[in-house]
From TrEMBL, chains A, B:
Belongs to the PurS family. It catalyses: N(2)-formyl-N(1)-(5-phospho-beta-D-ribosyl)glycinamide + L-glutamine + ATP + H2O = 2-formamido-N(1)-(5-O-phospho-beta-D-ribosyl)acetamidine + L-glutamate + ADP + phosphate + H(+). The lineage of its organism: Bacteria, Bacillati, Actinomycetota, Actinomycetes, Propionibacteriales. Pfam families: PurS (PF02700). Part of the phosphoribosylformylglycinamidine synthase complex involved in the purines biosynthetic pathway. Catalyzes the ATP-dependent conversion of formylglycinamide ribonucleotide (FGAR) and glutamine to yield formylglycinamidine ribonucleotide (FGAM) and glutamate. The FGAM synthase complex is composed of three subunits. PurQ produces an ammonia molecule by converting glutamine to glutamate. PurL transfers the ammonia molecule to FGAR to form FGAM in an ATP-dependent manner. It is an enzyme of class 6 (ligase). It comes from Nocardioides daeguensis. SUPFAM superfamilies: PurS-like. This is Phosphoribosylformylglycinamidine synthase subunit PurS. Its EC number is 6.3.5.3. Part of the FGAM synthase complex composed of 1 PurL, 1 PurQ and 2 PurS subunits. Pathway: Purine metabolism; IMP biosynthesis via de novo pathway; 5-amino-1-(5-phospho-D-ribosyl)imidazole from N(2)-formyl-N(1)-(5-phospho-D-ribosyl)glycinamide: step 1/2. The gene is purS.
């Protein structure tokens, strides 16, 4: 997701469109990316550390984006 | 996220880049969008139904994308 201090024009565009489409009560919209990564074998701590490194070096731009990694079985 | 039967060239590009960067054991990568929506007041069933409708009509393209809605307090 874009860092809180980074402008997010896509999110703002969505937020601006919502009232025009009849949706109210939305105070903020942020748009980011989501990656679903399938892995071989079990998710050990070492594997998770690899995925964190992947997220930091390849999947996100750490200058403007934050990331979170979560595991779904 | 792109539906399983839809080609995902961005995901495939990431999957192709991973071994070159020394990451192994990844069997599939899919890339999609993530929206963080902040709402006024409590998340009742009615509000959640509104957000589902938002996801279906504005935030996703139901021809090629699936979506899930989850609540974080």
């Amino acid at each position: 997701m874009p860092k809180p201090e980074i402008l997010d024009p896509q999110g703002k565009a969505v937020q601006g469109a919502l009232p025009r489409l009849g949706f109210t009560g939305v105070t903020d919209v942020r748009q980011g990316k989501r990656f679903e990564i399938e892995l071989e074998g079990e998710v050990t701590d070492a594997v998770l550390a690899e995925v964190e490194k992947m997220a930091e070096t390849l999947l996100s731009n750490p200058v403007i984006e934050n990331y979170t990694v979560s595991v779904e079985q």
